[in-house]
Amino acid sequence: TFQDPLPSPYFSIVHGRVCNYKWKDIEIANNVWNWQAFDDYIKLNADSLPIMLMIFTKEHSPDWLYTKAGVPRVIEYDILRDSVGFAPYYPDPDYKFYFKRMIDSVSNHIMSYPFSLRRLLTGIQPCFGEEGEYLGYRNYAGSDTGIMHVDSVNRLNPKQLSDLFKEFNLDYY
């Protein structure tokens, strides 16, 4: 459930809103979309202030990506080899297909809004990594010397990460 927004007339320092979503909450099965909470939250926040959208992926990617679509799940480990999180294997062709389809589906859905609502949506922040920023694995610096690491078969070097980051950003664009 979502929290009610701060009422802008009483909080003059609020100059915009951020609406956060999880990919797994809007694409509940392969190409099955549940837009109800997405729409409700945008409408709840539509009080003439600009709205920026964020759609989290990584651990918030749909479970069916792993169980039905065969996208490899990359387990992130701490120094003791305890699992501390997971992410999809970003270079996987199936992941790329579904990720890009999600971007297109969200865009098409937004374009179905009336102009009065659509005009408030000023941007979308691609959320690739840990907290919605640069693509990668949790605290992963490319080697086992960091605090966290992934198995060698899943490691991506900085050039691979940079290329994926560019590719995914171009898809959002």
Task: Tell me what the structure shows.
- The chain is an alpha/beta fold.
- Helix content is 32%, strand content 22%.
- It has six helices and eight strands; from the N terminus they run E-H-E-E-H-E-H-E-E-H-H-E-E-H.
- The chain has helices at 23-26, 36-45, 64-67, 93-111, 115-118, 158-172; strands at residues 17-22, 27-29, 32-33, 51-56, 73-78, 83-88, 121-127, 148-149.
- Strands 1-4-7 form a three-stranded parallel sheet.
- The longest helix is centred in the middle third of the chain and has 19 residues, at 93-111.
- Mean pLDDT is 83; it is low at 140-145.
C-alpha-based Rg, rounded: 18 Å
Shape: elongated
Provide the structure class.
Answer: alpha/beta
What is the string of SSEs from the N terminus onward? Answer: EHEEHEHEEHHEEH
Beta-strand portion reads 15-25%
Uncertain residue segments: 140-145
Provide a count of the helices: 6
Give the neighbour order of strands across the main sheet. Answer: 1-4-7
